[in-house]
Design brief:
Keywords: Calcium, Chondrogenesis, Developmental protein, Differentiation, Disulfide bond, Gamma-carboxyglutamic acid, Metal-binding, Osteogenesis, Phosphoprotein, Secreted, Signal. The protein has about 100 residues and is an all-alpha fold. Helices cover about 65% and strands about 0% of the residues. The longest helix is centred in the N-terminal third of the chain and has 17 residues, at about 1-20. The relative contact order is 0.06.
């Protein structure tokens, strides 16, 4: 009987500890998570938006080699499957690099 009482008490404490809701999780309810259309772009000035677009264009033109290789591998299904197991670098080397002695 003592064991049953002890287990019930421990279970009640565990439920109380696990079901406790802190006030930190309620912070998202205080502020609306969505902005209306009128205020959607007010946090960035037009000059900042122009600068961000220009930087995005530069990033698209000057991609790192590993990203170009990964995109090439993503377009080829066998390479993509191989990459899931061995990684994109190994997959790219297997399917797209010229092998020694091959012309």
């Amino acid at each position: 009987m003592k064991t049953l009482l002890l287990l019930t008490t421990l279970a009640a404490l565990a439920v109380a500890a696990l079901c406790y809701e802190s006030h930190e999780s309620m912070e998202s309810y205080e502020i609306s998570p969505f902005l209306n259309r009128r205020n959607a772009n007010t946090f960035m000035s037009p000059q900042q938006r122009w600068r961000a677009k220009a930087q995005e264009r530069v990033r698209e033109r000057t991609k790192p080699v590993y990203e170009i290789n990964r995109e090439a591998c993503d377009d080829y299904k066998l390479c993509e499957r191989y990459a899931m197991v061995y990684g994109y670098n190994a997959a790219y080397n297997r399917y797209f690099r010229k092998r020694r002695g091959a012309e």
